[in-house]
Design a protein that fits this description.
The complex is a heterodimer. The longest helix of chain A is centred in the middle third of the chain and has 36 residues. By secondary structure, chain A is an all-alpha fold. Chain A has two domains: 96 residues, no CATH class; 219 residues, MetI-like fold. Chain A is 68% helix and 3% strand. Classes of the chains: A mainly alpha, B alpha+beta.
């Protein structure tokens, strides 16, 4: 088990390294750097000014060197201003004496860099935004998982019954409705002057103070999309289990239907949905982009859009690392969870 | 100690009062001109026997307003490229003079100012008793240092250099020796090499904030200032919070009243007006930066209070005469540019793109609200001639890509113009860019639409946007005749005399087909009932000290 986890962590580090290098390469293409210089310096800079702005900040050095700096295995750049003799550098914080500044400052030293668009430490920005999306995800899971499992189990118990047909129709309809459609419909019907004003059509204030009123609609919008999918998976798994030999045996022994479902079928039927639910986490992390934008909730998805739109290199890298981390950790949990749900599976 | 004699009123101002009486100019024009000549607002109103309208009067102390506005990263004031940035710091960094919706300019950090008859000497009388946060008094030295800073043309993106152009030595790109003269502790004299009438209104513009001697561009948020509010919290793209400085005595309380509020919260809802609507519905905001397009009508139906101001703000569809498309500067050809102007009926764009919330414009970027506006015949609308010109230029088959930002009014107006160009037989492709990328290259697009804010004098925007080599010259217009005429116009203090030059300038703009300018906009914003002073400002300035809860 320990070796398995260790191997997984190794894979995670390797994936993160590859992914960040690709992101790094793409964000460091010259047109992207030019865009960065113009948004940071001034939109009306000439090409010469762009070049001097970039080279003064070490952006024009060879790619491996720059990547090494970000990792913290190559010393950070320094630049001495010819006008006033002031020394600036990657590792020199404002107000710090250049002589005392550390030579290396990358993620190995725990420094994630500085976000050019948010004018703040990347570590702080990512942590704050991830926490907000975490809050959103938590409530989505609280709403989505129980209702999806309930719908799936009820539908799968008796395949082909009226209950099955109506619940299946609902699941398919909810999965087939994209978030940008359901979100807009909810806002119009439930949170505006043209419908009833039960809820709030914006979740901006939910960042500090989430209430049922301002947070329910974004949660519902995301949850509804996932509910149908998980319910369909659960139903398929449930119907398969219900036709298994041991269920028939149990029924012939005279076990009540209720006990068959709860004690014999449910655990086996939950193996497949468990993976799907775990897969929902990474999907949610990046899938919240639309809902966060729609409801103006400033979480991870919104940050990703801002970072990509402004070519905020270090923030994008941190976002990629966070995404890799979430994907692999949830997969790890899903694999370990398997062992407990299904004793036939062993992890070497 | 001041040089201005209170009883002395600039002779040109008296002349303007007569013009107003004769109906030759409007009240707004009179106020702009008279106050730019150093007449105080009160005196200017007196000259024409009117009383100024003030929003305050029913204000009560305390309260926090939640205001929708894009929250952008701070920069040093002279390189500000957005009024929003200025608004974040406006509570702390104050201005020498303040431009108001009625077209008047009034003294803030200046007690008064005096423009000589030949418009070559400007005496600035700094207000006494204005204190920095560290307890030292604002002096003439501070003002002179700031003006000298505005004149540093080599600073990347310093747009104040354009406004202070007359003071700048073209050889050194800094202020001319002796042009900024500190007379005594509270008097600065500007000795201009040639007459310039726009200096005073230029000092009212949003990058002209007065910053302290110990200003640090890396730590703007903690910088000291003279104003009553301090920026306590700033999360770019999310929110900002201004709080009234505790135990702070503001110089303006006795003179102009206020400040009333305890705190101002700016909340960023992106650029989509439907998000603003949802925020109003959710009661998360009290006031809006600006209401645009069809949302004005929607907001009207929500029991919100609407405010409106008629301006010289506009949208222009311009070609860049220098940008190359497929290796050729296609818009250097005058016929191509004229064809665009001929193919668009400005009235239709106003109706379809902006719901008739404004007045049609005449493709020369001088507004009827500007004092020196010369009335010209309406621009010709002639689709057949447009196509003929395009064919003559050999560009009939070329597909012109017309770029606009992705928003409500600019997109719709550009669409309407593009549709008319197509109707005339021109080959147009529309491209819509999101707001986050549009502005990266705004001045370089070969063919695109741009919004321009209002400026008090007609010559100002021409000097900023169409003079050869200016930073904001997005059309790359470079015309010796235009430059010399504009230089002449900029030296005539008397608006009537200037109008003769202006007529020629306007004709050059039209003849050269520099821009297709469909309309002048009225600006609107909405506030929830119960607030006073939060109405929209003619150039998007937020005068926080005027804002209050209604008593």
């Amino acid at each position: 088990m320990g070796l398995f986890i260790l191997r997984r962590v190794g894979v995670m580090l390797l994936t993160a390294l590859c992914l960040t290098f690709i992101v790094f390469f793409l964000t460091n293409l010259y047109p992207n750097l030019e865009k960065l210089a113009k948004t940071q310096g001034n939109m009306r800079m000439t090409d010469e000014q762009v070049d001097s702005w970039l080279s003064e900040r070490g952006y024009l050095d060879p790619l491996p060197v720059k990547y090494g700096r970000w990792l913290g295995v190559v010393p950070g750049w320094t630049f001495e201003d010819p006008d006033d003799g002031k020394v600036r550098g990657r590792c020199i914080e404002p107000g710090m004496d250049p002589a005392e500044a550390p030579r290396y400052c990358g993620i190995l030293q725990g420094d994630w860099g500085f976000s050019t668009v948010f004018k703040d430490e990347v570590g702080t920005v990512t942590a704050n935004r991830l926490a907000l999306t975490g809050k959103l995800m938590f409530w989505v899971m609280v709403l989505m998982v129980p209702s999806a499992l309930l719908i799936g189990v009820l539908a799968g118990m008796r395949e082909g019954s009226k209950l099955d047909r109506s619940l299946s129709t609902f699941s398919i309809a909810s999965t087939a409705t994209p978030e940008y459609v359901s979100g807009v419909i909810f806002i119009t019907l439930l949170a505006s002057s043209s419908g009833v004003k039960w809820f709030k059509g914006t979740a901006t204030s939910a960042a500090d103070n989430a209430t049922f009123e301002n947070f329910f609609l974004p949660v519902l919008t995301i949850a509804l999309y996932g509910v149908g999918y998980i319910a369909r998976m659960t139903r398929a798994s449930m119907t398969e289990v219900m036709t298994a030999q041991y269920i028939r045996t149990a029924r012939l022994k005279g076990v009540s239907f209720r006990n068959i479902v709860l004690k014999h079928a449910l655990r086996n039927a939950l193996i497949a949905p468990f993976t799907v639910i775990m897969l929902q986490f990474p999907w949610l992390l990046n899938g919240v982009v639309i809902v966060e934008t729609l409801f103006n909730y400033k979480g991870f998805g919104w940050t990703l859009v801002q970072a990509a739109g402004n070519n905020d290199i270090e923030l994008l890298l941190a976002c990629s690392v966070a995404a890799v981390f979430v994907v692999l950790v949830t997969q790890l949990i899903s694999d370990i969870g398997y062992v407990f749900l299904n004793p036939r599976i062993r992890i070497a | 100690m001041t040089i201005t004699n209170p009883s002395r009123i600039h002779p040109a101002a008296k002349m303007h009062a007569e013009e107003l009486a004769e109906g030759k100019i409007s009240r707004r024009e009179f106020l702009t001109r008279a106050t730019a000549l150093g007449v105080t607002t009160a005196a200017a109103y007196n000259m024409i026997g009117a009383t100024p309208a003030e929003a305050g009067g029913h204000a009560k102390m305390g309260g926090t307003i939640r205001y929708q506005m894009e929250v952008r990263g701070l920069k040093e004031p002279r390189v500000y490229d957005w009024p929003q940035i200025a608004n974040l710091m406006r509570g702390n960094f104050e201005y020498l003079v303040e431009y108001n919706n009625d077209g008047s300019v009034r003294g803030m950090l200046l007690e008064s100012w005096d423009v000589s008859d030949d418009a070559k000497t400007v005496v600035l009388n700094v207000r006494t008793g204005v204190m920095w946060d560290d307890g030292t008094e604002l002096t003439a030295e501070d003002v002179a240092r700031n003006i000298a800073g505005w004149c540093e043309k080599d600073v990347e993106g310093n747009s104040m250099a354009g406004r202070m152009n007359t003071l700048i030595d073209p050889d050194t790109n800094v202020a001319i020796e002796g042009a900024i003269e500190v007379v005594d502790s509270h008097t600065v004299r500007l000795n201009l090499p040639k007459p310039d009438i726009t200096i005073m209104v230029g000092m009212a513009d949003y990058p002209a904030a007065i910053i302290p001697a110990d200003f640090d561009a890396d730590d703007i948020i903690n910088s000291q200032g003279t104003g009553p509010f301090k920026l306590m919290e700033l999360e770019v793209g999310v929110k900002a919070r201004l709080e009234r400085k505790p135990d702070h005595t503001w110089w303006g309380t006795e003179i102009y009243g206020g400040p009333f509020l305890d705190a101002i919260e700016y909340i960023d809802y992106g650029t989509d007006p439907s998000a603003f609507l949802a925020a109003f519905d959710a009661e998360e905001i009290d006031s809006l930066y600006e209401s645009v397009g069809e949302f004005i009508d929607v907001m009207d139906s929500l029991e919100l209070e609407r405010s409106e101001v008629v301006t010289g703000a506009t949208m222009v569809i311009r070609t860049n005469q220098a940008t190359e498309v497929d290796g050729k500067a296609i818009y250097a050809d005058k016929r191509v540019r004229q064809a665009f102007a001929l193919s668009v009926n400005n009235d239709v764009v106003l109706e379809l793109g902006y719901g008739n919330r404004g007045v049609p414009a005449e493709n020369h970027h001088v507004a009827p609200v500007h004092p020196e506006y010369a009335e010209l015949p309406k621009p010709e609308y002639n689709p057949e001639k447009a196509l003929a010109l395009m064919e003559e230029a050999g560009m009939a088959d070329f597909e012109h890509e017309l770029i606009s930002i992705d928003d409500d009014w600019r997109k719709n107006s550009t669409d309407a113009a593009a549709a008319m160009m197509r109707d005339a037989g021109l080959n147009i492709k529309r491209t819509i860019l999101p707001g986050s990328t549009f502005w990266n290259d705004w001045a370089k697009y070969p063919f695109s639409s741009t919004s321009w804010n209002h400026r008090p004098l007609g010559v100002q925007v021409l000097a900023l946007a169409y003079r050869s080599g200016e930073a904001w010259n997005e059309s790359a217009f470079s015309n010796a005749e235009f430059d010399s005429l504009l230089g002449e116009g900029l030296s005539i203090a008397d608006a009537d005399a200037r109008r003769e030059v202006m007529a020629k300038i306007q004709m050059v703009m039209q003849e050269e087909g520099v821009i297709v300018q469909p309309y002048w906009r009225s600006l609107y914003n909405h506030s929830r009932p119960g607030w006073v002073g939060t109405g929209i400002h003619i150039s998007y300035e937020h005068h926080h000290y005027k804002w209050a809860m209604a008593a």
